[in-house]
Amino acid sequence: MSVPDPLAPDSRHHAPLPDSTRSQRREVDEEESRRANGPDWDAYADEYQATHGAFLGDAGFVWGPEGLTEAEARVLGDVAGKDVLEVGSGAGQCSRWVRTRGGRAVGLDLSWRQLQHSRRIDDDTGVVVPSVQGTATDLPFADATYDVVFCSFGALQFVSDIELAVAEAARVLRPGGRFAFSITHPTRWAFADDPSEAGLVASQSYWDRTPYVEFDSDTGRVSYVEHHRTLGDWVALLAGAGFRLHTLLEPEWPEGHDRVWGGWSAVRGKYLPGTAVLAADRG
Ligand SMILES: C[S@@+](CC[C@H](N)C(=O)[O-])C[C@H]1O[C@@H](n2cnc3c(N)ncnc32)[C@H](O)[C@@H]1O
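^ Class I SAM-dependent methyltransferase, sequence as received from the core. Prediction below:
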């Protein structure tokens, strides 16, 4: 029987943990986070796309497991004619949707295997998302290049140096440009990563920012890392980088939506928010 890891945040994707893998909460710096998460996403990309690709849609834009689409939410505003960067773009589904709406979207992702899937879908659909391998904390673009920077569950919760990632988004945006992103709703970090009723019982401190770490029990090698910030942390981060926060969406679980994605499910979605979508404009 698969036993959910009680330490894990919701967006973690190994359920259950592989045999030799253990988890803990401990400090991890930016280099170690990246060294773990790049190869982890390379190894997981095929399964991720096979499992979630149809739900995401080759040229679809969903903000999270609840299925809220950008067409409904309109968090980015009108993207037609805009220069748009997706950070943590995976297979580029969201950027492809932006392109079908007339935006000049480009993708950036840490994982070459995710980017190979992006190329595959480019070929299948004929909607090409120019993409680059890189990290959110060191964007390979000139200052004031983009009108919109966004992440749909991409990059931000995998980054340790989040001040730098937010500063990088601000740097590449033009004045007045928009930064929008979805993350696991911060309150979920107080609960076990379990889609059943057991995941409705708070068992960890919401205020404990110690990262979630998976490591190999034989070698000690860190294989996966996620970082937690409270809602208050996000407000302070955005304000500190000169952004004006104007949107916080907490999508409700839709009636009749019975898809299970990691710790997300109708059972928990009835009581707890699973996703937060924030949008802020650069001064
Ligand atoms: C949950 S997936 C989301 C991808 C896509 N937005 C989607 O909805 O499928 C997270 C993505 O963030 C990428 N990622 C992780 N750390 C990153 C970093 N430091 N910089 C850029 N991308 C990163 C991963 O490789 C992965 O493709």
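The helical segments are 30-56, 70-73, 93-100, 112-125, 162-172, 231-240, 266-269.
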